[in-house]
Each structure stands twice: as C-alpha cells, then as structure tokens.
Amino acid sequence: MLIGTYSHTIDDKNRLSLPSKFRKEMGKNVVVTPGLDSCLFVFTAKEWETISGNLSGREGSMLQADNRSLNRYLLGMAVEVEVDAAGRMLLPDHLRTRAKLQSKVVFIGVRDRVEIWDEATWKSYSAEVEKRADALAEKLSQAGMI
Hints:
With 146 residues, this protein is of the alpha+beta class. It has helices at 20-26, 45-56, 65-76, 93-98, 119-142; strands at residues 2-9, 15-17, 29-34, 40-44, 79-82, 88-90, 104-111, 113-118. Strands 1-7-8-4-3-5 form a 6-stranded antiparallel beta sheet, with helices on both faces. Strands 2-6 form a two-stranded antiparallel sheet.
C-alpha cells in the first residue's frame, strides 16, 4: 500500500527522485498521467493496466462523450517513465506544466497510486481539506462510504 507524504526537489534536468519507500513498491517502470485537483498520478505498470482497462473497457464507453473525454485526458497524456538506478525519473514538460510544478514538489501516497503536487498548491489544498475534514467524514458516513 502506498501511503505517506514526502517532499523533493526537481533538478535542473527535470528529474525528481521517487521516494525510496515508493520505489520499493512501484518498481523500475511507472506510468505518469494528469491527475485531478492539479496534481499528477503515478501508477505501477500493473495498476495502470487495470485502470486503463476499466476506463476504456466498458460496453458503450466509446459512445459516451464524458467517457471519451476522460479517456483522452488520462490515456492520451499518460507517459511510461523509467526510474533509474538512483531512483530518479524524468518528468515530461507537458505533465510538469499541466500540474504547474515548480522546483519543490510533494509526493503523496494514496493507496494504489502516488500523487505529485507542487508544494505550494499541496499546502493550500490540504489546509482547505483539513478545515472540512469533519464535514467530509460525516457526509461519507451518511452515504455509507465509511
């Protein structure tokens, strides 16, 4: 399970180090794709196979506009990335720009994926969620989610 929060810096060559805890669980090849809420999603190759299959494998999915749009967004911009022996991965410009990543980033483990956030964006987002945590828990509880 991928959990925890780790801060890192993007180097001059657009590389960032995958935290060692995540490296052990994710392996040498990962898939990076635009995420939601201004972050990037990072999946293991195996998890990406499941996710991409679920996105595009439903009957009629090609006929539904929202499904086509989400497929284009997530699958069309996804990139397979190799994690080198030092644990670094090269972040493509289009993904770095999409997530507005500056030099300092935060890796967040979210069970089946890792999210990469610009540090300032993450601080702002997490502060807002923290303010609403009780209300969110109540809402999810009423819906039978937790």
